[in-house]
Each structure stands twice: as structure tokens, then as C-alpha cells.
Amino acid sequence: MASELRVTTIANNAGTESVDTTYVINGSAKAWGHLNAGHDAFEDSFGFSSVTDNGTGDATSTFSNAFSNDDYAIAAGLKENSATNRSCHCNASSTTTIQMVSGLTASNSKQDYDSSYIVMGDLA
Amino acid sequence: MASILKVDELRGIASAGDITVTSEGGAATQSLQQGLAKAWIFTTDKTAYVPTGSFNVSSMTDNAVGRPETNFTNSFNDTNIVGSFDGGYNRLATNYTGDGGITTSSFAHYLISTASSAADVASTGVGFGASYLGDLA
What we know:
Chain A is mainly β. Chain A has one helix at residues 21-26, and strands at 9-11, 18-20, 31-35, 42-46, 48-55, 58-63, 73-78, 87-90, 98-104, 115-120. Chain A has one domain.
């Protein structure tokens, strides 16, 4: 049977450590994903329902639950065994329901990369 | 009225590892455990990478210049660990390396300069920070 607990603060039993529940909810990642080297599927993810491959170095990932606005924060990192400068980004055309991501070479050409994304923000 | 719940451990009823929280806007529910960072590390030691603040990190290993490796206290369930990092000015990417790569118990970083070479964080007043998300074992 499902149950719901409504509290303002969660503390350990000794009362020596506590956190306001707003930090638990606002401070939790709403989505994260490990995109494969083909840049077209998640190896593992949370909060994403699908990925669409738009071409080399260009993908659209869809959130399972919509954000309340498009001001969410994204941390992205590559998983490439090379000292060559490369990067991955979330594009400005992202919305409350989709995240547009690109992999870029040192010369800013789109390229598929094994990459990771963490999304923080407010869900609708 | 403010209320405080004092517990040492939270568990789901139907599944011990699944507790749901309601979204900020109230339109959705989502797993609490899945959204939590499982480990984080910060260090101002930019050469030996001795942690100055951390959670679920037992130690860091300095594999080579620009190649710090984080060792976790509690292991992940698989190697699909999502990591993000900040190495301050002039560092653009973090990659796994041949010096351990990503295992369930460690995450090796590869700090790269804009000149495309492995390099430790060099800027004054900044350190190395990273967070890791995924499923714990």
C-alpha cells in the first residue's frame, strides 16, 4: 500500500544532522544519462524516456517528466580516452520537454561521443 | 506547522530502494534514490589530489599529470556512472583513461588543457570538484 509522509525536515535519529526537505527535492537531479559512443542511445539513464539521433554529433533526448521552465542546469562530460580537446553541450533550442545535445571536436565540428549529462531544475 | 522526521534510514515499502517524491510543481512523481548524487569530491590539492571535502569517497589516486582517479567507499552497481567535474579555468573535458577507466569502485579522470595535453589544474584559487550519479550496488 502506498503511503505519503509530509515533513519539513529530515534528521538523523540523534538529531545531529538534518536537512530541510526542500533541499532533498530541489537538490536532487531530475535526469541523468550516459549516452553511448554512437550518441544515439542511453547506456543507463534516469528521467529520460527516449533519444532521437538527428545525425552525427546531434541528438534529442526527451524527459520523462516535463520541467516547469527551460532554465534547468546541465553538467555534461565526455568519456573519451584522448588528450585532444573535445566537448559536449546542451543547445539553446532545448525546451521543458527535450534536451538538444551536441558533441563537438576541437574545431567545433559535430561528432558522436560517449558522454554524460546531469540535469538539475524544477519539474512541472 | 513545521515538522521534523528523525530517522537513521529511509526505505520504500514496496521496494526498499524506491522512495518517490513529488515534483516542485506537483505534476509528477519521481524516484528519490535515482536523483541523488552518490558521491562527490572537492580538493584544492591540484597535484596529489588529496580530498579536502568528499562524500562516499575513500581516496583519490594520482595516476599521472592530469589524471586523478576517485575511489568510492560504496561501489556502484555497474560502470554506467555519470560524472561531471570542474577543474577551473582552461580545462574543457574529463575523460576516462587507460589508467583504470571507469570501474564500479573508481572513476579515472583525464584533465585536458586547451592545448590538447594532459594537465593538472593550474589556476590560482580553484580546485578540482566532481559529482557522480548512477545506481549503487
